[in-house]
Design brief:
Length: 153
């Protein structure tokens, strides 16, 4: 299976492949928009972490290591004080003994919280847009009055 993430300008990452899948040995994950020398950091709910260097935005992680709710972060670990990071949407991994594999799917448990945050962001953007539109209209009016005082041909 190949899980696909898209890294956004908001320093967040979202899963583009939403269908649950059963994997065998490895889960391959691609990160669209990942810079060179980026590293994917996977953290289980028990606190254990795994670091995987990305090669052309792709990495793999062993299915045996995956367990439960997984947090995902992509970072450029170059030693700089302000490392570039993306906090990505998590996924859930559940071992299915009958099939001998791991069921992997997006962790949608906090979807309502994300929707509320998006509604808040849209509201803030709409207010900022209204404010900018008002300032633009005021500036346009002043410029028109200023230009009326001159005979520009």
């Amino acid at each position: 299976m190949k899980m696909e993430y898209k890294l956004l300008n908001s320093n967040n990452g979202v899963i583009m492949t939403r269908t649950p899948e059963l994997i065998g040995d490895m889960l391959y994950i691609s990160f669209t928009g990942a810079p060179d020398k980026a590293t994917a950091i996977f953290e289980r709910s028990d606190g254990e972490s795994a670091y995987r260097a990305l090669s052309d935005g792709l990495c793999g992680i062993e299915s045996d290591w995956l367990d439960g709710s997984m947090k995902v972060t992509v970072a450029v670990l170059d030693g700089s004080v302000r490392a570039q990071r993306w906090f990505c949407e998590g996924f859930y991994a559940r071992h299915i003994k009958e099939c001998g594999g791991v069921l992997v799917y997006p962790d949608d448990m906090d979807m309502q919280k994300k929707i509320a945050e998006l509604q808040e962001d849209v509201s803030d953007l709409a207010a900022a847009n209204r404010e900018l539109s008002d300032k633009y209209a005021e500036l346009e009016t002043k410029l028109t009055k200023l230009l009326e005082g001159y005979d520009i041909i």
